[in-house]
Design goal:
By secondary structure, the protein is α/β, with parallel strands linked by helices. It is built from 17 helices and twelve strands. It binds zinc ion.
Length: 437
């Protein structure tokens, strides 16, 4: 008799544990354009191990899209958040245009609270892959509407209020819709300042802190929040009800600094992202039922940690005073004397007459990146492109289930593992063929 009872109790225990397992929280942090070398560059220049690097389990993933080995952020976000490959530029839709349900939408239906915190417009490719479904990532007016009407995301922090307001109110919408008002009617608290962010107390909050993207962290005004502050607040709001939650955090601008081949910008944006990882990790350690996953959506710039000669001038790099965008806002290349002295003051580098003449011939629209590549190479960092590359990216994991994030995987494996670990779905994923090139 006792044996039967014990068996019954152990079955109850299994059921109980399964229910507990259902409530696993997920914090999914994505460094846009961040791969191994962006992380190591920041680590070298900081002179310390980044928090991201301390997570106990690591994997490597491929990032290719449905139609190219070199993905853009739209299919990369779709792969990371839904488990399916799609065409470059497509968000949350299959190559034939049919919508794909993201794991955030599945989680929402499963009783989760959903949040996102980014330093770009909340309608940009990566955050839009949480809730959006469009064939062309540029269709951000539609994405804003999808965000507002779907109600998928309970906590939305980032930039881009112009995409939510009609032209009559200083926005960009020509359909006359005021999506901020619409979201207020749906129960969202709207905030657009740091004070508003800090004091927000509702369960659903829309926080848009810039007309477009937030400023780069290197030159961000004190009126705009940092990513770690937004992450802290998002976790506070999402966790207070006791219901499980899924939060996506993006270091959105690592990618843009890498597009510009700006080592200083990559350094600072990666550190800002890592600060958000620290917030997530501390929460997870305290909570005990939160899985933290950190990855990049693809590599940008073909960054290499040498330009030859078996050295990087770390001491020189650490003394840099800002991005080349900041430099060019203060120095005009046509004023040779000041420009040359400025490069010495800001980056400690000397420029020859021939090098100056080469830069002088660059069109004004390309000067920022050409100067950034020039400065990078003087310091000892190399770049192969202004675009993305097919390089694999690291995945770091901490918390319940983290041990499954090991080995060489594909980016689509991450959301599949999340669904398995949260018990949210038993979908059998059909095999979608890899890029044909
Ligand atoms: Zn990207």
């Amino acid at each position: 008799m006792f044996g039967v009872r014990a068996k019954f109790l152990s079955i109850l225990l299994v059921i109980f544990l399964s229910v507990v397992a259902l409530s696993l929280n997920i914090i999914y942090l994505v460094g846009d354009g961040m791969s191994f070398n962006q992380l190591l560059l920041a680590s070298i220049l900081e002179g310390r191990v980044l928090t991201t690097m301390t997570l106990p389990y690591t994997a490597i993933t491929t990032t290719y899209s449905y139609d190219s080995w070199v993905t853009d952020s739209a299919p990369a976000g779709t792969a990371l958040f839904s488990g399916f490959k799609t065409l470059n530029r497509a968000i949350g839709v299959f190559p034939n245009g049919e919508p794909i349900t993201s794991i955030f939408e599945i989680a929402k239906n499963g009783g989760y609270k959903i949040g996102l915190a980014v330093t770009c417009r909340v309608t940009h490719a990566t955050p839009a892959s949480v809730y959006g479904h469009v064939s062309n990532r540029d269709d951000e007016l539609t994405l804003a509407k999808q965000l507002a009407e779907s109600g998928t995301v309970d906590v939305v922090f980032g930039g881009g209020w112009q995409w939510f307001l009609p032209t009559a109110n200083g926005g960009r919408r020509t359909d006359g819709m005021n999506l901020i008002e619409l979201m207020k009617q749906k129960g969202y608290e709207y905030v657009n300042s740091i004070d508003g962010l800090k004091s927000a107390s509702s369960d659903k909050v829309l926080g848009l802190f810039a007309a477009s993207h937030l400023e780069p962290v290197s030159s961000r005004p004190s009126s705009q929040p940092t990513l770690d502050l937004m992450t802290t607040k998002a976790l506070e709001i999402l966790s207070k009800s006791g219901e499980p939650f899924m939060l996506m955090v993006e270091g959105s601008q690592i990618d843009w600094e890498a597009h510009s081949n700006d080592f200083y910008g990559v350094w600072k944006e990666t550190v800002e992202f890592d600060n958000a990882v620290k917030v997530a990790l501390e929460f997870a350690k305290k909570d005990g039922n939160t899985l933290v996953i950190v990855t990049g959506d693809h590599e940008t710039g073909g960054l290499s940690l040498s330009k030859g000669g078996y050295s990087v001038n770390v001491e020189l790099a650490r003394k840099a005073k800002g991005t080349t965008q900041m430099f060019l806002s203060q120095y005009n290349i046509s004023d040779k004397e000041k420009f040359v002295q400025g490069l010495k003051d800001w980056y400690g580098i000397s420029i020859s007459d021939a090098e100056y003449e080469t830069l002088r011939k660059v069109s004004s629209s390309n000067l920022r990146r050409e100067l950034a590549r020039f400065v990078s190479e003087k310091v000892g960092f190399g770049w192969t492109t202004w675009d993305h590359t097919a390089a694999p990216v690291p995945v770091y994991a901490f918390g319940p289930g983290a041990q499954y994030f090991v080995g060489f995987m594909d980016n689509t494996d991450i959301p599949k593992l999340i669904l398995k670990l949260t018990g949210l779905s038993t979908i059998k994923f059909p095999v979608v063929s890899a890029a044909g090139n």
